[in-house]
Amino acid sequence: MASLRLLLAKPWIWSFIGALLVWLATITFTGGYGGGGMITAALSLAVFTVIVGVGQMFVITLGPGNVDLSLPANIGLASAVAMKVMDGNDSMIAVGLLAALACGMAIGAANYLLIWALRIPPIIATLSASFIIQSIDISYGRGLQIKPPPGFASFTNWQILGIPVLAILTVLFSIGAAIALQRMIYGRSVLAIGQNIRAAWLAGVNVGRIRFLTYTLSGALGGLDGALLAGYFRGANVDIGNEYLLASIAVVVIGGTSVAGGKANVPGVWGAALFLVLLLTMLNTFGVSAGVRLLLTGLIIVGVITAAGGQTALR
């Protein structure tokens, strides 16, 4: 019992419990049909939310007001850049991925420079940047009909024993992110800044550099996500990243990261991402109309975020 109470005290466990309950409700409704396929599909789609969610988690951990609202536009532009550079050629996959990463890193760096140079809140700076990025994307990617290289498209959909390879790689990446957060100077500096920025500065933390690296990291992960989404969905699209604005923030908070900063939770990002994907699957299975589905999804997300945020504040 003591070990169970200890497990339930972990903030990230509730996101996994929520995902499990949604999955059970769905397979109960279908009489057990398609349960395995549902998990495979959830893992495939959750990957993209986890990648940007981890980047958003690092940004939010920096403290109140820190958030990256440019991710959807970043994803859209990076997807177009990756497809144009790859140009349907398998030999250009690595170059295209590097181009998408570079595009995302440039956006992330520009976000922080706006915050630093103009002394404006991150929410304003990144939102303003998103409009600029989207304008560039519309001009750059208008009419883009380039399909991903066959090898890249196959890789993004590749499965081993029903488990998506992208999910396996993202789990490894998540473990690395957790180690960096808890064991490396950079991660500890992010946590210290989020807990008390002045105390971190007095302790010798280069606050400006850490914040710059964090926004650049978030941008880079957005760029990578854009390239992978273009491969998975067989092409770039200006709107391909739209759903990841709310989702990237929701998975962070639902997963147990404090919106006040100084406390992050990598496993919870995975649980929350699976919860959101399975929730949408459940509503589709129940035959809920598109409008009602969006309304219920929004209400459930807001409710869970409010509850999770309240529990985090109490801790």
Automatic annotation (TrEMBL):
The chain crosses the membrane at residues 12-33, 39-62, 92-115, 122-140, 160-181, 244-262, 269-288, 294-314. GO terms for molecular function: transmembrane transporter activity. The keyword Oxidoreductase does not apply. It holds the Pfam family BPD_transp_2. One of its GO terms (cellular component) is plasma membrane. It is found in: Cell membrane. It is a multi-pass membrane protein. The lineage of its organism: Bacteria, Pseudomonadati, Pseudomonadota, Alphaproteobacteria, Hyphomicrobiales. Keywords: Cell membrane, Membrane, Transmembrane, Transmembrane helix. This is Putative ribose ABC transporter, permease. The keyword Membrane applies.
